[in-house]
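pinned: reference chain
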Amino acid sequence: MSGFEVIGLIASASQLIRYTGEIIDYTRSIFIFLKGSTRRFSQHREHLEALILAVEAIRQTPLLQTQLIQHHLGVLLRRTENLRAVLRRYTIDLPQKLLKRFRAALSAQKAQEQILKDLSALERDKSNLLLCITSSYGVTLEKIKRTMDSKLMAPKNDAGSGWDSKSSSSRIL
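pinned: its C-alpha cells
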C-alpha cells in the first residue's frame, strides 16, 4: 500500500466515524425529544380539558347566550377537540420495539410543528372569545346603568313605591 492509499483509508475511516457519531447523536436527540414531548403533550391535553370545562361553564351562563359568543364557543370547542385528538395519539406509552419507538419519535417530531400552530390558533380563538364576552358585559352594564338612571330620575309617588334618589344612590355606591 502506498502512502496515498493509507491517507485515503484513514480519511474514509474518519468520515465513517464522524457520520456514525452524527447518526448516534441524531437518534439520541429523537428519543430525548420523544420522552419530553410525551410529557409536554400530556400537559397540553390537561390544559385543553380545563378549557373544555370552561367552555361548558360559559355555555351554561344565561347572560352569555348571545349568537356571537356561541359562534366563538363553537369554533373554540371544535379546535380544542381536534387538537385533543392529535395530542392523544402522542401521549400514549412508548412502543417496546426499537424500530417502532424510532417511528413514533419521528412522527411526533413532525406533528409538534402542527401542534404548536394549532395551539397558537387556539390562543387567538380564546382572545376573540374574551373580547366578545367583554363586549357583552359592557352592553349589559350600559343597560343596567340606563335602567338605574331612569329609576333615579323617576318622580316619587305618594305611596312610597318610587325610588328615593338619595337612598338608592347610596345603596348602589
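why pinned: The CA atoms of residues 36 and 53 lie 26 Å apart. The two ends are 101 Å apart (CA to CA).
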